[in-house]
Amino acid sequence: MTGPHSTRNPHPTRNPRPTPNPHPTRNRRPGRLWTQLFRVGLAAARTTPGTRLRFWALLVASAAMALTALAFVTTTATFEGRTQRDTARGPVLTDNAHRATALWKEAIDSFGASPHGVIYIEPLTADSPPPPGLARWPRPGEAFFSPELARAAEDFDSLDRYGRYAGTIDPQGLRSPSERMAYVRPAHPPADPTAQSWQYITGFGRLFPMNQDTYPHTAVETAGVIAVLLAVPALALLVVATRVGSATRDRRSRLVNALGASWAHRAVINVGEAVVPAAAGTAVALLPAALLLATDVRLPITGYVIDVADTRRAWPELAGALVVSPLLTLVLVVILHRVQRSRTATRPSMSTAHLPKWRLVLCLAGVLAIAFSQYAPKGPDLATFLAGTVLMWATLPSVVAQLCVVNGNRIAARGHRDGNPGRLIAGRWTAAHPGVLVRLSVVFIIGIGLISHLQVWNSRLGDSAVAAQRLTERVGDTLYTVHSSTLTSDAVKRLARGLPDGTRLLVATGHPEGDHPRLDLTGSCTDLTALRLPCPDTAQRVTPGDPRLEELARPYGGNLTVRAVTGDLSVSRANGSLVVTTDGPGHRAEIEKAAYAAHPGINVDTPGEIWVIGAQQKSNVNGWLFLFGGTGLALLLVAGLISAAAEFVRIRAGLAPLSVLTGNYQVFRTIALWYLTVPLLIATALATFITNWHSLFFVISLREGRFSWPVLATAATGFSLAAVAIGLLAAHSARRAAPSWRPEAD
Fold this sequence. Notes:
Elements: H1 30-47, H2 51-89, E1 91-93, E2 102-111, E3 114-123, E4 142-145, H3 147-155, E5 164-168, E6 181-184, E7 199-204, H4 219-242, H5 246-258, H6 263-284, H7 286-294, E8 297-298, E9 305-306, H8 308-313, H9 315-335, E10 339-340, E11 349-350, H10 357-372, H11 380-418, H12 421-432, H13 434-458, H14 462-475, E12 479-483, H15 489-498, E13 503-511, E14 518-523, H16 525-530, E15 540-542, H17 547-553, E16 560-564, H18 571-574, E17 577-582, H19 588-598, E18 603-605, H20 609-655, H21 658-662, H22 666-702, H23 709-737
Helix pairs in contact: 1-6, 2-4, 2-6, 2-9, 2-20, 4-20, 6-9, 10-11, 11-12, 11-13, 11-22, 12-22, 13-20, 13-22, 13-23, 14-20, 15-19, 20-23, 22-23
């Protein structure tokens, strides 16, 4: 039955045309494509040539990035903890003696060349709480030491220097477990606190700068040092690791790009290729992170102890650092592997096939900033110098690579004219791979600069400090200067009674002003005679026969006068300065104990010792530079080794067929030396010249220190030998691979 409303198909023999789906992708599973791309990356990580080298390179780079992140987090947590403890223990000063609950006084002392803080305290009310870190107030004549100071005092046999040793200060009362500090209560309360520089306090709980010798730098300064000396080498290592075996990945990227892959598709493949070593490198950093959370950690070289309480409070930040660092590694892996299309050509080219011109412009800007920083006003001059330094050293490898490219074209032209296939190939490779030259030369350039600048920084001890150290060695442990701005006659009497047998006590009054400076010595006739000096009733100029007194008078032009007195020494003539001599060494602990018992806050040292202590403090700062700078240099060396090894792999595969074409193995050495050794020697020569020039500006900016040519020459020689070794090893690697080469359909 048919009709206008019939449902029968009028054309039963025809197949109905399917209706097109306006949304074809809705019937697909989008996640399946991304999963497949990720699996492609995982498979490429196992089968790509040079897989093992890139795996270990990315693992080390990821571990370096994680350790750098841990260093930043630990620095922030440590300084936050230091600020909290500084605030808790800081004295709340008051001018009202009636409201005060205690007396407080700070002094500086040292064991050897290591200074420490001495805090004198005296409670005025029975209910006043003791300082944080102490369970009770020290009893009269008692002293509490920090654990680090207690160990140093035992080494110098001076645990009772300030009185009876009562125990150690708890960690909550110390800026760091490595801080050297003592809380001391004098045996007798001060008769006149104001005259003896005591301060009235109402308690503790205000931020107060005390004992600043325990790493006196700020969090911003420390983070800047970590960024320059640790983060930059870690990033350089990551860049090198990312480009290991790049030729195969570049071909793969061009293929998937020709098939219509987007940037996101290539990113997924790259992430799949790098995710395993990135995760493994981060896992390596779990060990130091666990150590930071488990116990106090003493840093090598510096001796600084990181408080576990600070890192435990910052455990979320530490965990976040271990999560962010591998993500940052993967992001950089994706960013550093790009494919660019030319607007005039259909063939895609890699971004590393040429060097951007802006790098050369930035390098020139850095050089100009360094040169003109000497004419900038004080303050901006240092900032300009540092900014120019970063720009110059960061872009100098690109300048070297550009010079090598020009030189490579000349080498290729010369090889073509002479019929030398080794030079021809080496020159063309040099001109075609500037990115390789950048990665190889960065270690040589920054390494030479870093070594020389660490030497300049370490030379900041100064001539006066070196001379003072020699003076201390000449005088020995038999002459001491005892001084205090609040010294009283009673304190001098107590000191004289407390000195051990065989000691001499003199008053020293210096007159450095005028055209005729002099040093006046006053003492009993017995003490003067023991020092082979006359006993005049009036001041008489003498030529001392004791070499110790000659050294004492040397700052005054050798002019020395003596006068004998009877009875007690006059403190008015002392002007806060006394001289104690002994017949033999080994009495320092007894003299210091007698001095501190006689007058709290007194200073006992040998001539020139304060300069030696200052030099030691600078040396402690240098320890931090060596810690971070040495670690950064080690990372750069690893980057150089990885980059060189990657070139060995590429050269071995590319040069092996040449033995068949040339009929000899000498071509391997020619290519390797001209392609690797010569550019690295150029980098070494340019880095040596720039370092010499820059170090002179560095000394001018520091206004101290000196540049050492032997150190620079040694570094340049070492890197030159390394350049030759890299070329020879590359040639040897290619020669070993040549007999096993077989032609393939590639």
